[in-house]
Amino acid sequence: MSKKIHTEAVDYLFEAILSLKNKEECYTFFEDVCTVNEILSLSQRFEVAKMLREKKTYLEISEKTGASTATISRVNRSLNYGNDGYEMVFERINKKEPEEV
Protein backbone atom coordinates (compact mmCIF):
# COMPACT_ATOMS: atom_id res chain seq x y z
CA MET A 1 0.00 0.00 0.00
CA SER A 2 1.33 3.42 -0.93
CA LYS A 3 2.12 5.51 2.12
CA LYS A 4 1.87 8.66 -0.01
CA ILE A 5 -1.93 8.58 0.03
CA HIS A 6 -2.43 6.96 3.44
CA THR A 7 -3.87 9.88 5.42
CA GLU A 8 -6.82 10.40 7.73
CA ALA A 9 -8.61 12.35 5.00
CA VAL A 10 -8.20 9.51 2.50
CA ASP A 11 -9.31 6.99 5.15
CA TYR A 12 -12.44 9.08 5.68
CA LEU A 13 -13.11 9.25 1.93
CA PHE A 14 -12.75 5.48 1.61
CA GLU A 15 -15.11 4.97 4.56
CA ALA A 16 -17.63 7.13 2.71
CA ILE A 17 -17.20 5.06 -0.46
CA LEU A 18 -17.56 1.81 1.49
CA SER A 19 -20.84 3.10 2.95
CA LEU A 20 -22.44 3.29 -0.52
CA LYS A 21 -25.02 0.56 -1.08
CA ASN A 22 -25.63 0.48 -4.84
CA LYS A 23 -24.75 2.04 -8.19
CA GLU A 24 -27.35 4.79 -7.81
CA GLU A 25 -25.78 5.87 -4.52
CA CYS A 26 -22.38 5.79 -6.26
CA TYR A 27 -23.67 8.09 -9.00
CA THR A 28 -25.13 10.47 -6.41
CA PHE A 29 -21.96 10.60 -4.32
CA PHE A 30 -19.38 10.71 -7.10
CA GLU A 31 -21.28 13.39 -9.02
CA ASP A 32 -20.98 15.58 -5.90
CA VAL A 33 -17.35 14.69 -5.10
CA CYS A 34 -15.84 14.60 -8.59
CA THR A 35 -16.15 16.56 -11.78
CA VAL A 36 -17.69 14.77 -14.74
CA ASN A 37 -14.25 14.65 -16.37
CA GLU A 38 -12.68 13.05 -13.27
CA ILE A 39 -15.33 10.32 -13.23
CA LEU A 40 -14.93 9.73 -16.97
CA SER A 41 -11.12 9.59 -16.60
CA LEU A 42 -11.37 6.97 -13.86
CA SER A 43 -13.82 4.89 -15.87
CA GLN A 44 -11.60 5.22 -18.96
CA ARG A 45 -8.58 3.89 -17.02
CA PHE A 46 -10.64 0.99 -15.73
CA GLU A 47 -11.79 0.17 -19.28
CA VAL A 48 -8.17 0.41 -20.49
CA ALA A 49 -7.10 -2.04 -17.77
CA LYS A 50 -9.86 -4.45 -18.78
CA MET A 51 -8.81 -4.31 -22.43
CA LEU A 52 -5.11 -4.74 -21.57
CA ARG A 53 -6.00 -7.88 -19.62
CA GLU A 54 -7.83 -9.07 -22.73
CA LYS A 55 -4.54 -8.59 -24.65
CA LYS A 56 -5.90 -5.81 -26.87
CA THR A 57 -3.33 -3.65 -28.65
CA TYR A 58 -2.67 -0.04 -27.72
CA LEU A 59 -4.22 0.98 -31.04
CA GLU A 60 -7.42 -1.00 -30.38
CA ILE A 61 -7.64 0.42 -26.87
CA SER A 62 -7.02 3.98 -28.01
CA GLU A 63 -9.62 3.72 -30.77
CA LYS A 64 -12.29 2.28 -28.47
CA THR A 65 -11.67 4.38 -25.35
CA GLY A 66 -10.07 7.54 -26.69
CA ALA A 67 -7.23 7.07 -24.19
CA SER A 68 -3.81 8.41 -25.08
CA THR A 69 -0.87 6.03 -25.36
CA ALA A 70 0.55 7.72 -22.22
CA THR A 71 -2.59 6.79 -20.26
CA ILE A 72 -2.56 3.24 -21.64
CA SER A 73 1.11 2.90 -20.73
CA ARG A 74 0.48 4.22 -17.19
CA VAL A 75 -2.36 1.73 -16.67
CA ASN A 76 -0.22 -1.07 -18.12
CA ARG A 77 2.55 -0.21 -15.65
CA SER A 78 0.04 -0.39 -12.79
CA LEU A 79 -1.18 -3.77 -14.00
CA ASN A 80 2.36 -5.13 -14.22
CA TYR A 81 4.10 -3.45 -11.29
CA GLY A 82 1.35 -1.99 -9.10
CA ASN A 83 -0.36 -3.24 -5.96
CA ASP A 84 -2.65 -5.71 -7.82
CA GLY A 85 -5.69 -3.54 -7.10
CA TYR A 86 -7.03 -3.92 -10.62
CA GLU A 87 -6.55 -7.70 -10.46
CA MET A 88 -8.35 -7.94 -7.12
CA VAL A 89 -11.36 -6.03 -8.44
CA PHE A 90 -11.49 -7.87 -11.78
CA GLU A 91 -11.44 -11.23 -9.96
CA ARG A 92 -14.35 -10.11 -7.77
CA ILE A 93 -16.33 -8.79 -10.73
CA ASN A 94 -15.75 -12.01 -12.67
CA LYS A 95 -16.94 -14.12 -9.72
CA LYS A 96 -20.06 -11.96 -9.45
CA GLU A 97 -21.04 -11.94 -13.16
CA PRO A 98 -22.15 -15.59 -13.57
CA GLU A 99 -24.58 -15.20 -10.65
CA GLU A 100 -26.17 -12.16 -12.27
CA VAL A 101 -26.80 -13.82 -15.64
UniProtKB/TrEMBL annotation:
Domain of life: Bacteria
Pfam hit, one: Trp_repressor
Descriptive protein name: Trp operon repressor family
InterPro entries the UniProt entry points to: Trp_repress, Trp_repressor/repl_initiator, TrpR-like_sf, YecD_YerC
Gene3D superfamilies in the record: TrpR-like
NCBIfam families: yecD_yerC (TIGR02531)
GO molecular function, one term: DNA-binding transcription factor activity
